[in-house]
């Protein structure tokens, strides 16, 4: 017998078959409207939900799925899954630590290089039939200072690429220093920002990190500094960033995420010292395979009566 699974996201080619072969019957609710209007007959039988951190599941939504046993966030983040509400209801929550770190680290380096070397701007210039080189203000990353806010799986991979490939000095700020890290610890975010040429944000999202990067941190980063955000838009005060970029208080920013995504604030469109991508850092064939394999393993463990591999604990 197949286990009914409600999916909040589209599955790429080949994955529906893998879920079916693993014993799961897929139902889809990919928009807020379809989730709100879910057929009660389908809702009644759902035993598992596959979601992402930026969609998540509230306690109220859990109550509409009376036979729900497990919620799997496919990637690392699970900020909009109400983990406390799930615990109260005896529902297990899992996520995918480490599944996409390599892809996000590659993407971060691409963003850093793109904003430093002005790749999108230069590409646009050539497409306007403009091959002039005077006045272009492109810099380099070699030997510069990298500051990481939230050194975990992704931050560590970024640090290794920057130190090994670009001879960069690496510092980080976490709430507490790591005991076995190669990199220099800063006990305040402001001190890290003042020191760094590149401030990379790689903390989780959610209330605990909301607007950690505010106007004062951007001022500390200064006019030669770049802000790179690949974690969650909520960690950066978007208005402060827009002001800082408009007034050239920092050199530039490169973002894979922005608060309120997929909506993008109109003020960022004209900014020429900003590069932005639509939350694709964790997307690559390898990362997708890692994420989906772990989701299926967690589901099979749960429904096979053994502990899940990567639980989220409230
Ligand atoms: N752009 C993407 O596609 C993409 C892909 C994967 C993950 N992410 C985001 O990146 C985040 C980090 O991923 P990871 O795999 O490195 O997670 P991780 O848990 O390994 O690392 C996060 C680090 O942030 C630190 N941290 C937490 N709160 C902090 C705070 N208030 N101040 C300073 N440091 C703090 C933690 O101690 C930890 O070391 C995820 O939670 C997710 O939101 C984005
Ligand atoms: O938290 C994550 O792992 C990333 O945001 C990637 O999530 P995605 O599955 O939505 O791409």
UniProtKB/TrEMBL annotation:
EC assignment: 1.1.1.-, 1.1.1.95
The UniProt record lists the D-isomer specific 2-hydroxyacid dehydrogenase NAD-binding domain at: 109-281
What does the similarity note say? Belongs to the D-isomer specific 2-hydroxyacid dehydrogenase family.
Q: What is this protein called?
A: D-3-phosphoglycerate dehydrogenase
UniProt xrefs under Pfam families: 2-Hacid_dh, 2-Hacid_dh_C
Q: Which PROSITE patterns match?
A: D_2_HYDROXYACID_DH_1
An example of a GO molecular function for this protein is: NAD binding
Q: Which residues form the D-isomer specific 2-hydroxyacid dehydrogenase catalytic domain?
A: 24-312
Q: Which InterPro entries match?
A: D-isomer_2-hydroxyacid_DH, D-isomer_2_OHA_DH_cat_dom, D-isomer_DH_CS1, D-isomer_DH_NAD-bd, NAD(P)-bd_dom_sf
Q: Does the keyword Lipid metabolism apply?
A: no
Superkingdom is Bacteria
């Amino acid at each position: 017998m197949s286990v009914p699974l409600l999916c909040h996201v589209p599955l790429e080619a080949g994955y529906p078959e893998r879920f079916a072969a693993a014993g799961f019957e897929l139902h889809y609710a990919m928009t807020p409207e379809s989730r709100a209007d879910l057929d009660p007959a389908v809702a009644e039988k759902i035993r598992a939900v596959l979601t992402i951190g930026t969609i998540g599941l509230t306690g109220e939504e859990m109550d509409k799925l009376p036979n729900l046993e497990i919620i799997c966030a496919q990637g690392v983040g699970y900020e909009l899954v109400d983990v406390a509400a799930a615990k109260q209801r005896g529902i297990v929550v899992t996520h995918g630590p480490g599944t996409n770190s390599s892809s996000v680290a590659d993407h971060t380096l691409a963003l850093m290089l793109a904003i430093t070397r002005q790749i999108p701007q230069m590409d646009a210039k050539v497409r306007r039939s403009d091959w002039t080189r005077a006045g272009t203000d492109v810099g380099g990353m070699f030997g510069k200072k990298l500051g990481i806010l939230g050194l975990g799986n992704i931050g560590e991979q970024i640090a290794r690429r920057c130190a090994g490939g670009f001879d960069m000095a690496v510092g980080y700020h976490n709430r507490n220093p790591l005991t076995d890290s190669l990199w220099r610890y800063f006990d305040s975010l402001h001190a890290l920002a003042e020191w760094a040429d590149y401030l990379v944000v790689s903390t989780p999202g959610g209330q605990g990190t909301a607007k950690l990067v505010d106007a004062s941190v951007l001022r500390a980063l200064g006019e030669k500094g770049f802000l790179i955000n690949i974690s969650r838009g909520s960690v950066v005060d978007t208005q402060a960033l827009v002001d800082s970029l408009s007034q050239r208080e920092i050199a530039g920013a490169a973002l894979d995420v922005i608060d309120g995504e997929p909506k993008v604030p109109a003020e960022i469109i004209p900014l020429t010292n900003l590069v932005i991508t639509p939350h694709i850092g964790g997307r690559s064939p390898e990362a997708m395979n890692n994420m989906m394999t772990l989701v299926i393993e967690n589901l099979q463990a749960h429904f096979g009566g053994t502990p899940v591999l990567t639980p989220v604990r409230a």
